[in-house]
Amino acid sequence: MPMDPSVVEHVARLARLELSDEERQRFARQLGSILEYCATLNELDTEHVEPTSHVLTLTNVFRDDVAGTPLPRDAVLAAAPDHEDGFFKVPPIIETE
Amino acid sequence: MDREGALRAAGEWDARYARGGALPALAGLPVAVKDIICTAGMPTTCGSRILAGWVPPYDATVVSRLKDAGAVIVGKTNLDEFAMGSSTENSGFGPTRNPWDPERVPGGSSGGSAAAVAAGMTPLALGTDTGGSIRQPAGFTSIVGMKPTYGRVSRYGLVAFASSLDQVGPMARTVADAALLLQVIAGRDPKDSTSVDVPVEDYPGTLPRGVRGLRIGIVREAFGQGLQGDVGEAVRAAAAHLGSLGAALTEVSLPSIPYALPTYYLLATSEASANLARYDGVQYGLRVPTDDLFTMYTRTRRQGFGSEVKRRIMLGTYALSAGYYEGFFLKAQRVRTLIRREFLQALDAVDLVLMPVSPTVPFRLGEKVDDPLQMYLADIYTIPVNLAGLPGISVPCGFSSGLPIGLQLIGKPFDEATVLRAAYAYEQDTDWHTRRPPVVGQSRSQAVAEVHKRDHATTPPRRAPKRGAQTRQRSSRKSKKARTRK
Amino acid sequence: MSTPAIATSYETVIGLEIHVQLLTASKMFCACPVTFGAPPNTLICPVCLGLPGSLPVLNRKAVDLGLRTAVALGCTAQPTSQFHRKNYYYPDLPKNYQITQYRYKVHPPLAIDGSLEIPREDNLVPGGTGRRIGVRRVHLEEDTGRLVHAEQHGRIRYSLIDFNRSGVPLMEIVTEPELRSPQEARTFLARLRAVLQAIEVSTGKMEEGSLRCDANVSLRRPGAELGIRTEVKNMNSLRSVERALAYEVERQRAVLDRGQPVEQETRHWDERRGITFSSRTKEEAQDYRYFPEPDLVPIAVAPQWVAQVRASLPELPEAKRRRYVATYGLPEYDAELLTSSAAMARFFEETVRLFPHPKAACNWLVGDITAYLNVAGKEIDELPVTPAHLAELLQLVERGAISGRTAKEIVAEMLAQGRRPEVIVGERGLAQISDEEALARIVDEVLAEHTGPVSEYRAGKTQALTFLVGQVMKKTRGRANPEMANRLLKEKLKS
């Protein structure tokens, strides 16, 4: 069952993706069938199973509180699409809708 | 391709070699690096237009370790965008082809590294493996590729796809070379909280111990529906061969394996949806200029990402979103527990688990691009190993109509040594790894042109670096030595 | 006149969310230095910029400081806690997710369920018991960068980003909604700040943003369900917290009195205009899609770790306050003031060690010195003055080397310049005249010049003595030892 178009739109917005009409339709169809496939997991009883975030059993991996040398600013800003006076520069935040 | 840098570094090692004295493990050896691993001063694109031209200001830990060991980084290899794919067709800079048949895919996502090693362009390469991205292309190109235990190799500088699954690993022509490369990159890194402080064994040294007495479990569920007939036969034959070398074969059951694929796609895409949120046009990479920030984000990401990446970001965002988290993400995390538990139980009774690498031989370019689920099925035997966090290797075990087949061996956590040792025993007693793809029979530049013709991202080298060819000979000398020790 | 009756029938409900910048040398997940006021984008590295491939590694000290706070507030440290990714897009957030601890069933924050005592409303009874305000949780997270908006004609043209603050270690402390007035909120915050300073977890400087406070405010009829709340932000001092909340309480009261509902929203405090205003931008229904941070492993806090932290804690302000009242006999109000900042309490105790008259030291500190600090807008440890200076000043007064009046004259110079009072006295010739011979000569002069009052005194009008003392002081420009002058005058008038 294809994903509801309003859900596709909502998810795309959360993920900051602009979709074309064609993509919206294609993703609705493809995600729908992938999710149907994923729903097969419900065949398994996991009521008393703890979730695994990752397989390691490590805890308490720390670094000591020692200050190091930062990156040179010019090298970092050189990669920036836009910058001004040592700052990264972006267009204004305007809430849409 | 970093022609000047590689030649300079090789020249320096030449000079040191001429002066005599001890040389580090990989002195002068060319290594190609999958272009999702950061290299200071060399562009790192992750196969994505959104990172076109980005030059990291730092080296990944694995790259620093390679350099410290004397390796010469000859260039970066093509991949599926952000390692999301099983065919290297999803690269933002064009697909890579299989040296065994240019009409077919080399597998993915480390298809560039696999093709480069298979075509003899480099003896060694680094790949990354989140759901099979080292092992599957290794199997598709008849080379050796290993995914180490999760936590064995530092991920610092590996651009994240799915952080709880990603691992860097070696790709090489032979098991001995792979062992050597793993030896250099393995071990705890203080910059990666998930790299584990378990002693790194002398992998090359333990190779010749053979398989006598090793218990190998053949996974019952891996030989059913969907497996191409002659692939299954080749893998069963390989198992029997290991038996003839003294391994004790049994059957093991991993009943949750069919659930690995959906589990993987929920978890990996969820993590990816966060990992890829940073590509927004603010600090680096592509920016589509607009009048407001929201549109800059959405348009930059629309133009910068390819279809598969967008699809996975959508899926992951959905699986984490309010109302679906419990049913999808959390459910998948619980199933992951079951899968890992089954593997560990099986590995209580046996030393290694054996499966095919892929259900089929390399498929044709374009064959599966429009059907994501079909494409995902290419990783059905490799994905469970990532979910369980175990070490797995792909070794050449045959051909079907001239197309490679891979054997997968999976070990206990941090027991890479046993995995390598069994793979080595099998390799040394067979000659699959000595076969070369047809392109290699042609002149070197022709071969390279063949692989890279039309659509490969990196500039095809007209001629391999002089040092490269020579060190390759030294490398094979090493393999010979290892063999005589047997 | 019915309004007051309605007005008094609401109960104010306030809960605070406090962000505390931790006193570490380096950031939460990388080695970039934490310093205030560096040029933009000079304290950055692949990790705090969220560059592709970078990974976080947790600063041990940040966890330690979080645990210190947890223990000081009587919280239960959780045996294991974990970081999560909080996903939202904002240009000051380099990865577009924030690494934070989040209470999600199996994933509790660092510590929960503590409390901090505040005095009962308007009632600082000596030895009286206070009211405990519940602390719901203490958790760790990384700070964001800083945005600077370039405005023209009231419209933002573009924004600039400085990532120096990105990844600075923060601790969030959330209270239960148990505060009942803006004044209580202020007192709670002041006491919390004193605790954080005492245990050396934070500088607690609201002006520099190392202590930030948001407040949830609602009104309800006593005993009724909680009312609809607003979240008040952008309060940059203790005073503005009290003012902003007082404004917001009155605003909600007026809305309710009109029979209208309070709208659930975020409101910003405008210090200059003295109002809160709704942040008009319509906030998208947030869906942060929290999930466990796979790049970090859980924090496991064994009981021994908590015990170690407990043993290493200094005396807390609450205990100090009680001790000052009980052993030094200081008034409750003064004890509160002395313990309101760790620097002040340290200064007081060191002064008392050098000059064991707590009341005298206290009087100076809560009186002239606090007044001076308030005007200067500084903490005592930001001035060059030391406890030795104050002790010396107190000694000079006690010895009679200078008068109390003189001491008041030179205290400002001592505070501002950190010079020894004895040196200042010497330079300015302010030493009290306690030389009996010299003073006797001056007394004789005064008696000779004012025969009228002398006769009056001798006739039994003892008030005349005050006048004569005044004349001695006038002649010595206030430097005469008043007791000695008094005695000499009396002796000479008798003879």
Automatic annotation (TrEMBL), chain A:
A Pfam family of the record is: GatC
Q: Which reaction does it catalyse?
A: L-aspartyl-tRNA(Asn) + L-glutamine + ATP + H2O = L-asparaginyl-tRNA(Asn) + L-glutamate + ADP + phosphate + 2 H(+); L-glutamyl-tRNA(Gln) + L-glutamine + ATP + H2O = L-glutaminyl-tRNA(Gln) + L-glutamate + ADP + phosphate + H(+)
* InterPro entries named among the record's database cross-references: Asp/Glu-ADT_sf_sub_c, GatC
Q: Which UniProt keywords apply?
A: ATP-binding, Ligase, Nucleotide-binding, Protein biosynthesis, Transferase
Is-annotated flag, keyword ATP-binding? yes
Q: What GO terms describe the biological role, i.e. biological process, of this protein?
A: glutaminyl-tRNAGln biosynthesis via transamidation; regulation of translational fidelity; translation
- Identify the enzyme class: ligase
Offer an example of a GO molecular function term for this protein.
glutaminyl-tRNA synthase (glutamine-hydrolyzing) activity
EC identifiers of the protein: 6.3.5.-
Q: Which family does it belong to?
A: Belongs to the GatC family.
Q: How does it assemble?
A: Heterotrimer of A, B and C subunits.
Function of this protein?
Allows the formation of correctly charged Asn-tRNA(Asn) or Gln-tRNA(Gln) through the transamidation of misacylated Asp-tRNA(Asn) or Glu-tRNA(Gln) in organisms which lack either or both of asparaginyl-tRNA or glutaminyl-tRNA synthetases. The reaction takes place in the presence of glutamine and ATP through an activated phospho-Asp-tRNA(Asn) or phospho-Glu-tRNA(Gln).
Q: What is this protein called?
A: Aspartyl/glutamyl-tRNA(Asn/Gln) amidotransferase subunit C
Q: Which organism is it from?
A: Candidatus Segetimicrobium genomatis
From TrEMBL, chain C:
The reaction(s) this protein catalyses = L-aspartyl-tRNA(Asn) + L-glutamine + ATP + H2O = L-asparaginyl-tRNA(Asn) + L-glutamate + ADP + phosphate + 2 H(+); L-glutamyl-tRNA(Gln) + L-glutamine + ATP + H2O = L-glutaminyl-tRNA(Gln) + L-glutamate + ADP + phosphate + H(+)
For this protein, the record's HAMAP family field holds: GatB (MF_00121)
Q: Which UniProt keywords apply?
A: ATP-binding, Ligase, Nucleotide-binding, Protein biosynthesis, Transferase
Entry protein name: Aspartyl/glutamyl-tRNA(Asn/Gln) amidotransferase subunit B
A single GO molecular-function term is:
transferase activity
One record GO biological process = translation
User: Asn/Gln amidotransferase domain spans which residues?
Assistant: 346-493
For this protein, the record's Pfam families field holds:
GatB_N (PF02934), GatB_Yqey (PF02637)
State the InterPro entries in the record. Answer: Asn/Gln-tRNA_amidoTrfase_suB/E, Asn/Gln-tRNA_Trfase_suB/E_cat, Asn/Gln_amidotransferase, Asn/Gln_tRNA_amidoTrase-B-like, GatB, GatB_C_1, GatB_Yqey_C_2, Gln-tRNA_amidoTrfase_suB_CS
Gene3D superfamilies given in the database record: 1.10.10.410, GatB domain, N-terminal subdomain (1.10.150.380)
Tell me which family the UniProt entry assigns to this protein. Answer: Belongs to the GatB/GatE family. GatB subfamily.
EC nos: 6.3.5.-
Summary of subunit composition and partner proteins: Heterotrimer of A, B and C subunits.
Identify the enzyme class: ligase
Q: Which NCBIfam families match?
A: gatB, PRK05477.1-2, PRK05477.1-4
Q: What top-level branch of life does the organism fall under?
A: Bacteria
This chain's source organism reads Candidatus Segetimicrobium genomatis
Its job: Allows the formation of correctly charged Asn-tRNA(Asn) or Gln-tRNA(Gln) through the transamidation of misacylated Asp-tRNA(Asn) or Glu-tRNA(Gln) in organisms which lack either or both of asparaginyl-tRNA or glutaminyl-tRNA synthetases. The reaction takes place in the presence of glutamine and ATP through an activated phospho-Asp-tRNA(Asn) or phospho-Glu-tRNA(Gln).
